[in-house]
Amino acid sequence: MKNPWQFEWPAPAKLNLFLHVVGRRADGYHLLQTVFRFLDFGDSLSFVPRDDDRILLTTPLPGVPPEQNLTVRAAQNLKQATGVRQGVEIRLVKQLPLGGGLGGGSSDAATVLLALNRLWETNLSSAELQQIGIQLGADVPIFIHGHAAFAEGIGERFVDVVLPPAWYLVLVPPVTVPTAEIFQSPDLRRDTPAINAADWRPGMGGNDLEPVACRLYPEVAEHLAWLRRFGPARMSGSGACVFAEFATLEAANAAHAANAAFAPGMQGFVARGLDRSPVAALL
Question: Which of 43, 108, 139, 208 is catalytic?
Answer without folding.
Answer: 139
